[in-house]
Write a structure and sequence with these properties.
heterodimer; A: alpha+beta; six-stranded antiparallel sheet; five-stranded mixed sheet; 12 strands; about 15% strand; B: alpha+beta; Thrombin, subunit H; 2 domains; seven-stranded antiparallel sheet
């Protein structure tokens, strides 16, 4: 069998835009309409290239093109022929092609696993809508428990629902946009799912964190813990989004995500004045009170607390008398 | 004849009435006039001159009270000179004429008084009297309000207010800015006090003249005049020392407040308490019921144009909710515990950052979470702002918060004060 396959690749990355199969094992490529593969690329000559099957390899012949033909991004030929192997990539003008023979190895079939099933499930429109509405309903419920005023259903209810829908759309739109630039697909509904899932976790954490921080009595530790948790939360959220869009995530991508998460966390901390460089006239101390919790050990009497902590709070902060 | 006399009396009666009514007023005006005529030669406008621009930056009044060429004014008039002596100097003026320059020879920040010395001043001086007056006695303050010119006004003596020995004469007369540091005369023409503050409509304070006499008798050695800040620091600490020892001496009587018994005001002459409460009402966005008792000292210490200090302020708050679950209630409760106030506003130049210590404590047979915060003053290293916040633990939908701020105290003095104020708190079961 003389079959020869040409894949037209996207000019960034390796995704296949179009695939041509030539049963007779040869083809011509160029801008002219007489070619077997007709390209619109202005840097490709009218009759640029001819390819033909040559035993276990492929022969590539540059037809005296204007800009030549590059093989695997290295050797450049012009008005001459060369032999390439199956799977090699050639560049003409701005166009990238991959040449393949029928016996080129392919990966074995992947199992239809739970992760894949999850991705398909999340891609359903009904799932995205129901999940979003469910999470906003839970948010409304929690907010109502915190402030069951009569006005709630007239004002706050709408603020929460509309606000949350905006957040979901914004998040999915933003991450979807980034995915489109990198992967040529947005996976909008999957990002919606990630946003919903992490909003639920966030809501749970909001309720829980006074309990987590109740026993911590050092304000620096509280700030560190609070923002570390936020950092890992954001990192996990971004990572999940990318993982759902593209199963193979490289370390460089994780580093990028960490940097973005860190930036967000610092911005939040700066906005909340927890992380500050300038002078603050206000004291800061851990303020987390939680119901039902008790000190781990017998607390000291008030008098002892003052005697013990007082002198430590100003010694060595002022050097000289003015 | 008889009828003629009668008609003459009848006709002259309105005139007689007019004479009686207005005669009294003429008599008063005469007193003010006499006092003004006799004493205005010893009262001056005090100007704080910004050296680099050569223009006045603060104005006040002052008066000469001894043949040694000593002047009295308020500390707050000349505080900038103490704070940054290389930027300002003090001058005394009459009308638009500069009479000379002044230097500081004595200070009393706790009473807001300063004694200045004018080189080569041999002019007339005022004689100092006594603030021991009867309620309703006439008082005649003099000064130069708003740089408009020397004025004399008339008011009534309303007794001494505040904590001894930091009292003020309560005066019903409208003092105005610029009159600070001017003398206030009794009807005999002797100085009974120094104009110091405007409290409200026609309500003002004078510093009793006794404090000035005491200050004039005090010797400040060379090391003091070279370092006024040390003097100021010691005076503020001495003032607090007296307040704290008064509090420690006072008998502790408790009153019910929420689930607690808290001390009643121990310094009624210096600290005033106010009450406030709210009832849970979901129609009105009020998610919890609360009661609040808030007490604050009436007078503080003017330290500089950038900072007031010396205030004592504290509040007891109870709060509870039926509508909220305990998580929702504790969010609001945590906020109340973390509310930070009762310390003066100050910039980085004046104070260091607060440092806090937080821990669980045992008080009134209950567990509390406590935060104790202190920041030292940069120019007065023995003075601190102290802030304490306490929240009781244990009840899922009910809580008590205590917050206390002591401005410009020495932290060591704050501890016995706080122990006395809070140590006796009891829990009502």
């Amino acid at each position: 069998m003389d079959r020869l396959i040409v894949e037209l690749l996207h000019h960034h990355g390796h995704s296949v835009e179009k695939r041509y199969v030539f049963e007779n094992g040869k083809a011509t490529i160029g801008r002219s309409y007489s070619n077997d593969i007709i390209l619109d690329d202005p840097f490709v000559s009218p009759k640029h290239l001819s390819i033909s099957r040559n035993g276990a390899g492929i022969r590539v012949e540059d037809l005296a093109s204007e800009n030549g033909t590059r093989i695997n991004g290295e050797t450049n030929i012009q008005d001459q022929g060369t032999r390439v192997a199956s799977g090699d990539e050639i560049y003409i003008g701005k166009t990238k092609l991959k040449l393949l023979l029928p016996d080129h190895p392919v990966e074995p079939a992947r199992r239809m696993d739970a992760f894949l099933a999850l991705r398909q499930f999340l891609d359903k429109r009904s799932v995205a809508i129901i999940f979003t509405l469910l999470v906003s309903a839970i948010m409304v419920w929690v907010a109502y428990l915190e402030g069951p005023t009569e006005k709630f259903w007239k004002t706050e209810f709408f603020e929460i629902v509309l606000g949350y829908l905006m957040v979901v759309t914004f998040y999915a739109g933003l991450i979807g946009g980034i995915c489109y630039l990198k992967l040529r697909k947005t996976c909008f509904k999957r990002h919606m799912a990630v946003c919903n899932a992490f909003s639920l976790i966030g809501l749970f954490y909001e309720t829980l964190y006074p309990f987590l921080l109740f026993w911590v009595s050092h304000s620096g530790t509280v700030v560190f813990l609070k923002y570390s948790i936020q950092f890992f939360f954001l990192l996990a959220m971004f990572w999940s989004s990318l993982k759902l869009a593209n199963t193979t995530i490289k370390w460089t991508a994780v580093a990028e995500l960490s940097a973005v998460s860190l930036m967000f966390v610092l911005l939040i901390g700066w906005g909340a004045k927890d992380i500050r460089l300038d002078f603050s006239g206000d004291p800061s101390y851990p303020n987390h009170l939680a119901p039902y919790l008790k000190p781990l050990s017998e607390p000291q009497p008030f008098e002892n607390f003052l005697e013990k902590s007082g002198p430590k709070l100003y010694r060595s902060t002022v050097k000289t008398a003015g | 004849m008889n009828r003629f006399l009668k008609s003459a009396i009848i006709h002259s009666f309105p005139l007689l009435l007019l004479w009686i009514l207005t005669g009294h007023a003429w008599a008063l005006t005469e007193t003010a006039q006499k006092i003004y005529e006799r004493n205005s030669g010893s009262v001056y406008q005090i100007q704080i001159i910004d050296i680099s621009s050569g223009e006045k930056s603060v104005i006040g009044s002052g008066f000469s009270f001894s043949k040694k060429g000593l002047f009295a004014t308020n500390y707050h008039v000349i505080s900038d000179v103490v704070d940054t002596p290389d930027r300002y100097r003090i001058e005394y003026h009459r009308g638009n004429e500069k009479k000379g320059e002044l230097s500081i020879v004595g200070l009393d920040v706790a009473h807001d008084l300063a004694i200045l010395k004018g080189e080569g001043n041999n002019g007339p001086f005022l004689s100092l009297g006594s603030s021991n007056r009867l309620m309703g006695d006439r008082v005649y303050p003099m000064g130069n309000p708003l740089d408009l010119g020397m004025t004399i006004i008339e008011g009534t003596f309303n007794g001494l207010v505040g904590l001894n020995p930091y009292q003020h004469i309560l005066l019903s007369a409208p003092l105005n800015p610029g009159m600070s540091g001017g003398p206030a005369f009794g009807s005999s023409g002797k100085v009974i006090g120094v104009n110091v503050a405007i409290e409200g409509n026609d309500l003002s304070y004078l510093v009793p003249v006794e404090y000035l006499i005491k200050l004039a008798g005090k010797k400040f050695d060379k090391s003091s005049t070279a370092n006024w800040r040390k003097v100021i620091q010691d005076q503020i600490i001495e003032r607090y020392d007296r307040i704290v020892s008064n509090v420690l001496k006072a008998e502790l009587s408790l009153e019910e407040f929420g689930s607690l018994k808290v001390p009643q005001n121990m310094l009624a002459s210096a600290i005033k308490c106010w009450g406030d409460s709210g009832r849970e009402d979901l129609k009105d966005d009020q998610l919890y019921s609360f009661g609040r008792k808030r007490c604050r000292s009436e007078y503080g210490v003017y330290l500089s144009s950038k900072m007031n200090t010396g205030s004592i302020e504290y509040s007891f708050v109870w709060m509870e909710s039926e509508a909220l679950n305990s998580l929702g209630f504790y969010k609001i409760y945590s906020n109340s515990f973390s509310k930070r106030n009762y310390y003066p506003y100050a910039t980085e130049k004046e104070v260091a950052e607060f440092r806090c210590s937080s821990d669980f404590i045992r008080l009134a047979n209950h567990d509390w979470k406590a935060a104790y915060c202190v920041r030292p003053y940069k120019k007065y290293p023995k003075l601190h702002d102290v802030y304490l916040s306490l929240a009781v633990l244990g009840e899922p939908k009910r809580g008590h918060v205590v917050r206390i701020g002591l401005a410009g105290i020495n932290e060591k003095l704050a501890r016995p004060f706080l122990n006395k104020l809070l140590g006796g708190i009891q829990w009502i079961d």
